[in-house]
Amino acid sequence: SLSHSAQVKEITRDIKQLDHAKRHLTTSITTLNHLHMLAGGVDSLEAMTRKRQYGEVANLLQGVVNVLEHFHKYMGIPQIRQLSERVKAAQSELGTQILADFEEAFPSQGSKRPGGPSNVLRDACLVANVLDPRIKQEIIKKFIRQHLSEYMVLFQENQDVAWLDKIDRRYAWIKRQLVDYEEKYCRMFPEEWCMTERIAVEFCHITKVELAKVMRTRAKEIEVKLLLFAIQRTTNFEGLLAKRFTGCTLTDAPGQQKRPESPLDQTNPFLEDEPGDDGGSEKDEDLTKPRKPKAPGNPFHGIISKCFEPHLYVYIESQDKNLGELIDRFVADFRAQGPPKAGTEEGGAVLPSCADLFVYYKKCMVQCSQLSTGEPMIALTTIFQKFLREYAWKILSGNLPKSSSNSGGLTITSLLKEKEGYEAAKFTVDELCLICSILSTAEYCLATTQQLEEKLKEKVDKVLVERINLTGEMDTFSSVISNSIQLLVQDLDAACDPALSAMSKMPWQSVEHVGDQSPYVTSIIMHIKQNVPIIRDNLASTRKYFTQFCIKFTNSFIPKFINHLFRCKPISMVGAEQLLLDTHSLKTVLLDLPSIGSQVLRKAPASYTKIVVKGMTRAEMILKVVMAPHEPSVVFVDNYIKLLADGNPETFQKILDMKGLKRSEQSSMLELFRQRLPTPPSGADSGPSLSFSAPTPEQESSRIRRLEKLIKKRL
Basic and acidic residues composition bias: which ranges (predicted)? Predict the structure, then answer.
């Protein structure tokens, strides 16, 4: 058993030795074959190089290089090292020889005309593919330089055709050259070299430098039409390149360090403005609409047209001038046509000039963003801001009627005699209509300016976004809105003033019986019915500002009414009953004010109703306290505190004045008032917390109950 095991081990060892020997023998044979191929290949390579048999060299060279890689670990052997050095020498000689052949065929200097395409040079390019990459780059550079040498002469800076007005000739020249290349030399260079694109790209680099040079020299001659013409033709050409080429050479083209920056908006800037395109006529509401998806970006955008950017100040200055003329035209048109007339479609509507302004803004913004998304866009934004303010001042604020334009108003006598008082309103119907129109326009401008800011931020480079801020201009339009509402409020307020004055001067002590509402109430209601429907109809498109008008008017009118109420002194019991009836009539009208005179009954906003109820209930409570007997004093004071919840002694004294109490009686009443206050006075400015609970029967006189019955009966 042991001897058998030993025999197996011995046999296994022998087999392993045979395997190793076989492997080494195979490797040796393979290596010798490779060495034979390498030696023969190097000999052939040197011979073919001398004979310029580039076609055979191209096939052989790559094989020799591949075989040589197998001997990398044998470089210590002198014979192998010698073969390697011969291969390197052959490669170096091939490179020098091929470059010399191209120089001979396409001389960079001298008057010798370039030769035509040849099979030798075609094969030489195939050899260059497996040589040092610098050989290929040098061939490309030499050929392109020679191919564009005529361009450099024809379009020198001092030549007539070099100027912007003949920029088309540059692009026509390169188109002819590219066609000529495709016909003559296309097959001479390997397809993957993309020679047509490389020629076009090098032409673009040269053109960019040459145009920049000539524009610097003749900067004073650049007019905006000429500049835009040159930019349009250039961007059209860049668009043409994008259709023809992929842009694959832009990252490694000679002289090109990096791909040109891709602007935010990469479509052709002038396509939108060509006939048949509605880009220039879009309403500015379209600023908010999503744009159509853009086509893939043009890698050639800006490859030439970037040179125009330093001169875009000419374009910006022209827009400054154009917008100035546009604003002047708006002013002249407004004066010539007059304000919108009441009862017409234009009455209260947005002024058409503001739509024209924003359409022009959009056109400029799109155009400028195509030219540059950098500093010129910031400069244009500054121009936009300037003329938004001018529009607000010259067209809107400048045309608001002055509050003192029409004198008028009711005399006390005419009010008392209930004569017609339509002349009391300071503004005519057309003037009210104009104010509403300016308000609506300011609201439109405010919303559209916000959209404009968002669009500008989208168009501009990200690093410049923070510098675009139209808040100041939006605030200006907000001020126009506030001023317009204030004018409407002041107008109606002023129309009611004579009536309130008449109320405070009436002999309330000598009123003998309670009748219908007083003439001053009829006058106030008449003015409300005259003004409010006009304002409501003309602000139909901007309901929230009509509500603001109603709230502001009520907030102004009710405190004024209460102040005049305090001036009605002394008041008899019957006089107070009449005033309470008048107050209730005014309260009813004010509650109905937002929809007064309208066939469509719409519930007033809760915020408005709350103001009216709170203010007019206070006026009613004042009169109820005045009507209550002042004896016993404690009951009167407690009743006042409960009804008015006003801890200000001045208000209490005004009530005592209205009741006609003597100063001696008032002193003791005031002392009692201070004692009976449940908490320390919170100050004159604290608003009363109204109590809607009715006084107890013990505190209320029979005359108050009779008055309430009278009011209910009238309603």
Answer: 280-289
Please state, in angstroms and rounded to a whole number, the distance separating the CA atoms of residues 336 and 349: 18
From CA 418, how far away is CA 521, in angstroms rounded? Answer: 10
617 Cβ contact list (under 8 Å, min separation 6): 587, 690, 692
CA distances 238 to 60, 152, 457, 568, Å, are 42, 20, 26, 84
Residues 55, 126: contact at Cβ < 8 Å? Answer: yes
Written as one letter, the residue type at 562 is I
Count of beta carbons in the 10 Å neighbourhood of residue 73: 8
- Distance in angstroms (rounded) separating the CA atoms of residues 502 and 517: 14
Please state whether 279 falls in left (phi above 0), alpha (psi between -120 and 50) or beta. Answer: alpha
Q: Which ranges of 155-223 would DSSP assign to H, the alpha helix?
A: 167-184, 195-217
pLDDT at position 277: 41
Distance between first and last Cα of the chain: 134
Cα(46)–Cα(94) distance, integer angstroms: 9
* CA atoms of 503 and 520, how far apart (whole Å): 6
Mapping DSSP to helix (H, G, I), strand (E, B) and coil, where does residue 428 land? coil
Helix (H, G, I), strand (E, B) or coil at 426: coil
Distances (CA, A) of 302 to 253, 299, 333: 16, 8, 41
Which positions of the chain have pLDDT values less than 70?
1-4, 7, 14, 18-95, 107-119, 126, 129-130, 132, 251-297, 339-348, 403-425, 679-715
Other beta carbons within 10 angstroms of residue 196's beta carbon come to 20
Closest C-alpha among 295, 292, 434, 410 to residue 351: 434
Residue of 145, 144, 125 whose CA lies nearest to 135: 125
Cis peptide before 570 (omega within 30 of 0): yes
Rg (CA), the chain: 48
In this prediction, residue 19 carries a pLDDT of: 62
Q: Do residues 297 and 238 make contact, with C-beta atoms less than 8 angstroms apart?
A: no
Cβ neighbours around 603 below 10 Å, total? 8
Instruction: Please name the residues in contact with 602: beta carbons below 8 A apart, sequence gap of 6 or more.
Output: 594, 595
The pLDDT of residue 81 is: 65
C-alpha closest to that of 531 among 503, 577, 495, 486: 495
Length of the chain: 715
DSSP string, 430-454: HHHHHHHHHHHHHHHHHHHHHHHHH
Rounded to whole angstroms, the Cα distance separating 633 from 621 reads 18
* CA 152 to chain CA centroid, nearest Å: 44
The two structure tokens encoding residue 128: 């260059």
Output 56-62 pairs: Cβ under 8 A, ≥24 positions apart.
Answer: 57/94, 57/123, 57/127, 58/123, 58/126, 58/127, 58/129, 58/130, 61/90, 61/91, 61/94, 61/127, 61/130, 61/131, 62/130
- The DSSP string of 305-354 is GGGGGGGTHHHHHHHHHHHHHHHHHHHHHHHHH-SPPTTSTTTTSPPHHH
Going by the DSSP 8-state scheme, the letter that residue 694 receives in this structure is P
CB-based contact 272:366 (threshold 8 Å):
yes
Nearest alpha carbon to residue 253 among 139, 151, 108, 140: 140
Q: How many CB atoms lie within 10 A of CB 28?
A: 10
- Quick one: which of 221, 294, 286 has its CA closest to 263? 294
Q: For residue 450, what pLDDT is reported?
A: 93
User: Which uninterrupted H or E stretch holds 411?
Assistant: none
C-alpha distance from residue 204 to each of 82, 105, 136, 269, 632 (Å): 47, 25, 21, 19, 104
Q: What is the pLDDT of residue 57?
A: 61
What is the model's pLDDT at position 155? 84
Predicted pLDDT of residue 59: 60
